[in-house]
Amino acid sequence: MTYSSTAIVALLVHCIINNDVIRNQHYRNTSPAGKTYRLLVLSVAAFYVSDIFWGILYEAHMIAAVFADSVVYFALMAGTVFLWTRYVVNYLEEWSGLNKALHYIGWFFLAFIAVVLALNFFWPVMFWFDEDGVFHSGKLRYYILITQVIMFVLSAGYVLFISKGMDKSEKRHHRAIGLFGFAIAILLGIQVTNPLLPLYTTGWLLGTCILHTFVLEDMKEDRLLELEEILRREEKQKKELGSARQLAFRDSLTGVKSYNAYVEAEQQINEGIASGDLQEFGVVVFDVNGLKRMNDTHGHEAGDRLLKEACHLICEMFKHSPVFRIGGDEFVVLVEGEDYQNRKSLLAEFERQAEENQCNGSPVVASGLSAFRPGEDNSFRKVFERADARMYDRKRFLKAKEKPSL
């Protein structure tokens, strides 16, 4: 159990420090480097499990089982080396000559180990067990270990080399990855002299601890800062959109709601009619008399003043309902609440005021009211058209009452 105890401790520490990587969905949907690192962490955990069983089975002299576990052990070892090269390639995010070489070397190494392990069933070129159940390493196993050392040294050296000129944070990450590669390379080099030492296991434990401390924790902090920045930008955009919406939904001249707001309100009313939730509302359509004549004779500034005064009259009379300017001299009030209950008296007072204004030269506004008829009106437009027709009747009436100009 001495051999297995190292792997057991390594597995426990590995799972504890990489719990977030193993369980967090973010690492499954993140960058290629993040996905590859998660696969690397999982393959290292599987390698530790194989190493644990190897020690137990070897001490129990279960030769057939330990032989099968040895095949799995070397396959997982090759898988971790392959995923390490993939991680380096994806982390660097460039397709340079050295990165290409590392990419193809990783694939070649994985394929080569698969062929060697298949051949080892017939010719013990990599390992074998004698009649007493003692494990022996073939020369090819040493060559493979040396090849792994070279791969780790080259990849680590390459990462360190390209870290020159980077900012402090990126350089720190690159150095940690380089240290990871050199640590495993050194321990593998020592293991060449004694294949039964659990130095490869120790190397991966040391390496993943280095990456977790100096790369992943920094990346989490960077990610948190990035998310905070995204939230700040979204909040700013919401405020900007809110301001833009206010501008788009507010008439710049009179300050009442604009045509855009009117279109949205019409859509909402139609939805309420269709669902049956809306049972009562009224529409008053207004038209300011004499705007064209005012613009032609006194200029557009005078016409703007006329519109503002007319709008003020409408807003003062219908204080509890939204007012919209839907055209040059056209206004609409969606009568609701208290105004809806008093709509007839309010309209009568407004019409009386219009006739009085006609006599004293104040703004004259024609108006027409219609109320929603449930079961008869299937859209806002029908209510509006009735109110609009009554407004034109009222406009003709006021026109007929005008004093003839001298």
Give an overview in words.
This protein is an alpha+beta fold. The protein has two domains: 2-232, Rhopdopsin 7-helix transmembrane proteins (Up-down Bundle); 259-401, Alpha-Beta Plaits (2-Layer Sandwich), CATH 3.30.70.270. Helices cover 71% and strands 7% of the residues. It is built from 14 helices and six strands. It has helices at residues 2-17, 19-23, 32-59, 63-92, 97-120, 139-162, 168-191, 199-248, 259-275, 291-298, 300-317, 337-341, 343-360, 380-401, and strands at 127-129, 135-137, 282-288, 323-325, 330-335, 365-371. A four-stranded antiparallel β-sheet has the order 4-5-3-6, sandwiched between helices. Strands 1-2 form a two-stranded antiparallel ribbon. A hairpin with a 5-residue loop joins β1 (127-129) and β2. α1 (2-17) packs antiparallel against α3 (32-59), α1 packs parallel to α8 (199-248) and α6 packs antiparallel against α7. It is rod-shaped, with a radius of gyration of 41 Å. The N and C termini lie far apart (120 Å). 34% of the residues are buried. The model has no long low-confidence stretch (mean pLDDT 85).
